[in-house]
């Protein structure tokens, strides 16, 4: 059985191709503002790569911020459900999930008995605690966002960032930079701030290990370190943390 999951995130689009319950391949691209176009393009690239036509795909399920824009999907599922199923592919015994995407962050609790979602919290009202927050801070420090975490890990004396609002935090970072604070110390302060924000949300749900961190921000080693310090538990990360939503959507299609 061949199935495909399409996760249209606010910043990136992911497509996962699953055959008989096994992940075969995936693709990731920037979403821009062309959700439907990018989603369809990645889908067609998978078909071409494996010499398939649409009739050979048994089911397509979409999820994510722009899930309603994918008209080739026969069904849609929520991001919460999709991430839970996708994470379980790599970590069947997962109890808690933290997902930080481009525009929101989530904490999810999984039942150890049924493997189903039993509770969750989401921050989608404020950019603080999201990938967008880190993107703005990287621009303020004039570094690539892909390098921000590694720079932060070089810090010896992190600069505290007191503002939880992205706009005010950006001004605070620029001010610290102008005062001569080291780039790595400011960067670590930024990561501590996001870890406290997201970690606080996770603590309110009483997250328990095994805890799995997914989403694009899970590729940032300083955020992982910060969350481990805030929560007091080891954080596990999937091999490709950005695709758990698309993978979960595909696996849900296979399960049905």
Structure explained in plain terms:
With 256 residues, the chain is α/β, with parallel strands linked by helices. The protein has 2 domains: 108 residues, 2-Layer Sandwich (Nucleotidyltransferase, domain 5); 144 residues, 2-Layer Sandwich (Nucleotidyltransferase, domain 5), CATH 3.30.420.40. It is built from 8 helices and 10 strands. The protein has a 5-stranded mixed β-sheet with strand order 3-2-1-4-5. A 5-stranded mixed β-sheet has the order 8-7-6-9-10, with helices on both faces. The longest helix has 22 residues. The radius of gyration is 19 Å and the shape is globular.
Strand order within the widest beta sheet: 3-2-1-4-5
Q: Any idea what the radius of gyration is?
A: 19 Å
**Fraction of residues in β-strands:** 15-25%
Structural class category: alpha/beta
Based on Cα principal axes, name the global outline: globular
Secondary-structure element string: EEEHEEHEEEHHHHEHEH
**What is the helix tally?**
8
Quickly count the domains: 2
In CATH, the architecture of the largest domain is 2-Layer Sandwich
Helix content: 40-55%
CATH superfamily of the largest domain: ATPase, nucleotide binding domain
Count the E strands. Answer: 10
**Name of the top-level CATH class of the largest domain:** Alpha Beta
Mean pLDDT: 92
Report the biggest beta sheet as strand number plus sense, adding barrel if it closes.
5 strands, mixed
C-alpha termini separation = 11 Å
């Amino acid at each position: 059985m061949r199935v495909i999951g399409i996760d249209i995130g606010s910043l990136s689009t992911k497509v996962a191709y699953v055959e008989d319950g096994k992940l075969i391949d995936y693709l990731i691209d920037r979403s821009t503002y062309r959700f439907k176009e990018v989603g369809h393009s990645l889908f067609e690239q998978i078909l071409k790569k494996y010499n398939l036509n649409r009739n050979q795909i048994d089911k397509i399920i979409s999820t994510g911020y722009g899930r309603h824009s994918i008209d080739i999907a026969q069904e849609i599922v929520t991001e919460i459900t999709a991430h839970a199923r996708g994470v379980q592919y790599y970590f069947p015994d997962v109890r808690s999930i933290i997902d930080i995407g481009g525009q929101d962050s989530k904490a999810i609790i999984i039942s150890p008995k049924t493997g189903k979602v039993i509770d969750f919290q989401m921050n989608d009202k404020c950019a603080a605690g999201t990938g967008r927050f880190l993107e703005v801070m990287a621009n303020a420090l004039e570094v690539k966002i892909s390098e921000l975490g590694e720079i932060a890990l070089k810090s010896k004396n992190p600069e505290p960032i007191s503002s939880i609002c992205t706009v005010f935090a950006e001004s605070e970072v620029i001010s610290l930079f102008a005062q001569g604070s080291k780039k790595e110390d400011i960067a670590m302060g930024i990561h501590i701030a996001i870890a406290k924000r997201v970690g606080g949300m996770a603590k309110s749900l009483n997250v328990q290990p095994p805890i799995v961190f997914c989403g694009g921000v899970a590729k940032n080693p300083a955020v992982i370190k910060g969350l481990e310090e805030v929560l007091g538990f080891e954080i596990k990360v999937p091999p490709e943390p950005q695709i758990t939503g698309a993978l979960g959507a595909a696996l849900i299609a296979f399960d049905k």
